[in-house]
Amino acid sequence: SMGYAGTLVTKGQGRAFVVETGMRTEMGRIGRLIESVEMRKTPLIEKIDQFARWLTLTILLMAALLFAYGFWVRGLDGADMLMAVVGLAVAAIPEGLPAILTITLAIGVQRMAKRQAVIRRLPAVETLGSVTVICSDKTGTLTRNEMTVQSVCLSDDLLTVQGVGYAPEGEITDADDKTLEPFSPSTDVRGTVSAIQWLGLTGILCNDAALHQSSSADWGANGDPTEASLLTLGAKLGFDQDACQNQFPRISVVPFESEHRFMATAHVSGSDSQTDEGFILVKGAPEVILDLSNQQMTSAGERMALDKDLWLRAVESQADAGRRVLAFAIKSNVSGLAGSSLKDEVADLTLVGLTGIIDPPREEAIESIELCQQAGIQVKMITGDHAGTARAIAAELGLTTKDQTPLTGSEIEALTDEELQSAAKDTAVFARSSPEHKIRLVKALQANAEVVAMTGDGVNDAPALKQADIGIAMGKKGTEAAKQAAEIVLADDNFASIVNAVKEGRTVYDNLKKSIAFLLPINGGESIAIIVAILIGATLPITPLQILWVNMVSAIGLGIVLAFEPPETDIMKRAPRPRGTPLLSRFLLWRIVFVSLLFLIGIFGVFHWTLSQGGSTDLARTMAVNTLVSMEVFYLFSVRFLKNPSFNWQGVKGTPRILMAVAFVVTLQLAFTYLPMFQQIFSTQGLSFDQLLLISGIGASVLIVLELEKRFVRSRDIKM
Questions:
Q1: Where are the alpha helices (DSSP H) in 321-385?
Q2: Mapping DSSP to helix (H, G, I), strand (E, B) and coil, where does residue 201 land?
Q3: Which positions ≥6 away from 598 have C-beta within 8 Å?
Q4: 187-230 residue pLDDT tens
Q5: Would you say 355 and 152 are in contact if contact means Cβ atoms under 8 Å apart?
Q6: What is the pLDDT at residue 191?
Q7: How far apart are the C-alpha atoms of 436 and 474, rounded to whole Å?
């Protein structure tokens, strides 16, 4: 008797009394739930914050120690030491990293949009790659949201219906596996008509839905999905909706209402349209139709006393299979239909059969769940449906077996938070769930250190979407409240799009790691070169201005293409990253230190070799800068695959963009070396062909050394 704020009245009359207003309404209750949710930082933001603090403190400490050592221990000039410290800061700070981070995330947004996942908040791109649990609604996300009749129960036969969705395609076979031939209804329903004919006719005429076929040959429905599935069944049986409606016009109707739980229509034959004698067709809840019936019909159309236990067993069997059950009954040769109340005539019916209806799983959802399981991602189905239906659909999707029992809303309410944390670990299906249950489930999973993605479409889903690490709203059937609370909106309401987005999220994280693994060794090599020069009292091999050129031009120019790298072949075969995993793993730290030392050797080696050959300081520094850029170029080819070989078919396919970036940087570096304007600004000198050849050889040697290091890492199966 309670109408909630925001409810739309579609028909009828009534008087309403306002009993609550504002935050005390149902809408207000949901609003309070949303307000109570604390926004959590995404894993990426947490890691970037931690990385930034660590890097800033390290650079400040190094700069302070270096200044103190040079000024007080070695007695060097304060101004010179200040310039050296500035050079160290410029060398150590990865100026291009924020830009590359933003561009990488933006490219991830673009790629996900092509996969039907619209990102509303940029950091959510990477968070998807960290997801360990996906909590999904059932209807329309894991299922097609197209009800399909799968079985027809007659008093003495069980028919199996093939086909999925609203397309009128698929055979109907009996218990002996014999295919039924399509037929048309008898022109005289006052005679003997078979049970399946009566059932098909009832599904067509006692119905307010309509099927339509789009230009792309896809079938859709206007009206209730369950009624649309009955039209599809009728079409498979051979009925034509328009022809049936013309042959048997409707003269009266009792619409379906929750109070009586059935729909009834009265019809007359087209040839008898001037009379008030006809027949009544009824469909509705099995228990209601059984109470209104006193007879049942055999397959051949003969009538006999109702065997209620027979039908109750059939209803239970269909429910156990996860199907929604509808019962169909008729009352033929009824006189005085025009002058009587149809509802009063709905009694003493003849039960003709039952239909088992299901919203079939999406084929792509089954494949995507299997892919999630390979990737170590748990998928949990949270639905308001009956536990039996949820269990059957979950078994078809591969989430559970039919023996595993879902956790229902009433059972969730009986559990404490600690008990729910334990139950949530091992339970894959939650049935009869309310908005409060969803929030508790998300919090329980998060308390288990899971990174949770939650799907939803209604206003009451908004609190859970906001609580989750990644809220995913439905773009087609989702409300604005759900979309505003979510970080991602699915344009096609398809679970497969979530999994595709997870793959893109993992790719984004991989590319971020590659960008960091590319930029930090460059900064590390430059920084160590300055530190070593001061410690041994040598001339700086690269000036602060030259370091700034390398960091802002060549490093960014080359590093930015890593944002466009495609996913590696094993990306969905890895386990999800635990939430506390640092951005710089032990392997990545080793790679950064190792490559930094290679860069240091290259920079210092070339600088002092040039000086030993009688070259000026400016020439030696020009050689050092160009050697650094050459090592960057060859290192770029290596860092595209952190563990796998750099030269494989996947690598070759992705090289055009890399080659363009290399050409761009080489062009700028030639200008840096040979143009008089740049020579004056950066104190550079032109190089000979032999010197360029030497520089290229040093760069290539870095690639060779790193490929050997990768082979060692793969042989020891060292984790990244």
A1: 342-345, 363-374
A2: helix
A3: 521, 525, 631, 702, 705, 706
A4: 566 666 899 999 999 999 999 999 988 765 678 888 888 999 99
A5: yes
A6: 65
A7: 20
To the nearest 10 degrees (0 to 180), the angle between helices 495-536 and 97-114 is 170
Q: Which of these, 12, 93, 9, lies nearest to 547 by C-alpha position?
A: 93
Q: In whole numbers, what is the pLDDT of the chain averaged over residues?
A: 86
What is the per-residue pLDDT for 105?
84
Q: Is 309 marked active-site?
A: no
Neighbouring CB atoms inside 10 A of 18's CB total 7
CA distance 562 to 418: 44
d(CA 260, CA 136): 33
Predicted TM-score (pTM) of the model is 0.72
Give residue 77's identity as a one-letter amino acid code.
D
H or E, element range at 501:
helix 495-536
Tell me which H or E stretch contains 447: helix 435-447
Phi, psi of 77 (to 5 degrees): -65, 140
Backbone angles phi, psi at 172, to 5 degrees: -120, 120
* Residues contacting 5, CB < 8 A, separation 6+: 25, 26, 27, 28
Check if the beta carbon of residue 92 is closer than 8 Å to that of residue 527.
yes
Query: Which one of 49, 77, 80, 137 is the catalytic residue?
Result: 137
Q: What's the rounded Cα separation, in Å, for the pair 700 and 707? A: 11
Task: Using DSSP bridges, classify how beta strands 250-254 and 407-408 pair: parallel, antiparallel or unpaired.
Answer: unpaired
Q: pLDDT-based confidence at 186, cuts 50/70/90?
A: low
Max CA separation in the chain (angstroms): 119
